[in-house]
Amino acid sequence: MFSKILIANRGEIALRILRACRELGIKTVAVHSTADEDAMHVRLADEAVCIGPPASRDSYLNVAAILSAATITGAEAIHPGYGFLSENADFAETVEAHGLTFIGPTAEHIRMMGDKITAKTTMQMLGVPLVPGSDGELTSLEEAREVADKVGYPVLIKAAAGGGGRGMKVAQTADDLEDAWKMARAEARAAFGNDAVYLEKYMDRPRHIELQILGDNYGNVVHFGERDCSLQRRHQKLLEEAGSPALTPEQRDAIGQTATQALSKMGYRNAGTLEFLYQDGQFCFIEMNTRLQVEHPVTEMVCDVDLVREQIRLAAGEQLGYTQKDISFSGHAIECRINAEDPDSFTPCPGTVAVYHPPGGLGVRVDSALYTGYRVPPFYDSMIAKLIVHAPTREQAIARMQRALDEFVVEGIKTVIPLHRRILEDPEFQKGDYTIHWLEQFTAKPH
Ligand code: ADP
């Protein structure tokens, strides 16, 4: 096992990793930008190294500075968290080339899944069902037209290098196709420096259901069930549940088996998430994330597992030590992402937190790096906390989340807590009756 780990991230996820390390008796090294000198992850870590100015590209994405920090502190492994360098195959490779362990999958698998076209063809070969669409990259607008005619409108043009919902454009009819084609490519070129695109049928009422998996270095792969992340705004998740209100245990077992078999054949190791669109009883793979997800806590609550601890253990070369039949699911969990944003306009609201009082009590978990007097910097993601509840049934989890949201005090900055309250009391949400389009329609309604 490692004796010291560098955490190449900030905010709540840096704390989350730090907590797992501490319970394993592992020393921690925090890295931070000059804007984060007073951050909680810096205060709680055993050592902290400043790696650059506020802009992420100069600090949290600064590979040379992060590697120097690891070297001077004698860290043996680096946990990248999510975002920043977590899905950067070159970074994973460089870390390993310096004799350190990258806590995550191999650089080869990160690269493979980072290109969504390769990800889809690989999964298809391994027997995982896909969203109907083009066989790989589209080479011309004419080809896009042919494929669109075959699968039927509406269609989606997507960037091979896409992420965060960027480089994705819908064509409702044949008349829109040229614009969607041009816009998706231009956005992909600007955001990712790569304008390769592919086409998918635009599904009209799917749910976003994803599967958490873990693999060790010896070919053992298990899954920890699904998360329903259908509640999204601009393709960004806002509220997640485990399990999905739409799935039966038998459907979960079936997709779980398909996924674990595929990843075991690939020799996939460490944590990963397969994302699917689910409609009319069919799962269609869209992409795989080769890292820890923001929403991993809902899985932890229903499976009673510490996924970060598992990531560290597996990266240290330990075996899983359990099989699929040892994993059981208990109750229901919901996570609300609390963003420092205006709950109506969604404009970011950085600033000083005048009062911070998180909720507590039975079945309530708050993953956050906030404290009273903390200044939320304007340079990074606006998510400032995750509120997670766990209860025996979905109905009780909803009641518990409503109670916890009412207790949550964050003063001085605006947050989306009022929006979460409205979602939780909506009858359709309460019935579990929603698709990926539901939240956009809900937030557009006057209230
Ligand atoms: P990104 O990596 O940019 O997040 P994804 O491929 O994961 O892109 O898609 C993000 C979201 O976009 C999905 O969760 C879903 O809401 C929507 N989406 C993606 N593909 C389709 C599709 N074929 N039909 C309808 N919605 C889609």
Fraction of residues in helix = 25-40%
What is CATH's topology name of the largest domain?
A: D-amino Acid Aminotransferase, Chain A, domain 1
Average pLDDT score: 97
CATH architecture of the largest domain: 2-Layer Sandwich
How many DSSP E strands?
20
Largest sheet: 8 strands, antiparallel
Shape: globular
Mind telling me the CATH superfamily name of the largest domain?
ATP-grasp fold, B domain
- Widest sheet: strand ordering: 13-12-9-10-11-14-19-17
Helix/strand/pairing class, anyone?
A: alpha+beta
Low-confidence stretches: none
Total of domains: 3
- State the end-to-end CA separation: 53 Å
**CATH domain class of the largest domain:** Alpha Beta
Number of helices: 15
Ligands present? adenosine-5'-diphosphate
Radius of gyration: 21 Å
Q: In percent terms, what proportion of residues is strand?
A: 25-35%
Outline:
This protein is an alpha+beta fold and 447 residues long. The protein contains 15 helices and 20 strands. The model has no long low-confidence stretch (mean pLDDT 97).
Task: Characterise this structure.
- This protein has helices spanning about 10-25, 40-45, 65-75, 90-95, 105-115, 115-125, 140-150, 175-190, 250-265, 295-305, 305-315, 395-405, 415-425, 425-430, 440-445; strands at about 5, 25-35, 45-50, 75-80, 100, 155-165, 165-170, 195-200, 205-215, 220-235, 235-240, 270-280, 280-290, 330-340, 350, 355, 365-370, 375, 385-390, 410.
- It is α+β, with helices and mostly antiparallel strands and about 450 residues long.
- The protein folds into 3 domains: about 5-90, Rossmann fold (3-Layer(aba) Sandwich), CATH 3.40.50.20; about 130-200, ATP-grasp fold, A domain (Dna Ligase, domain 1), CATH 3.30.1490.20; about 205-445, D-amino Acid Aminotransferase, Chain A, domain 1 (2-Layer Sandwich), CATH 3.30.470.20.
- The strands form 5 sheets. It has an 8-stranded antiparallel sheet. A 5-stranded parallel sheet has the order 3-2-1-4-5.
- It is globular.
- Adenosine-5'-diphosphate binds near residues 162, 232, 275, 277 and 286.
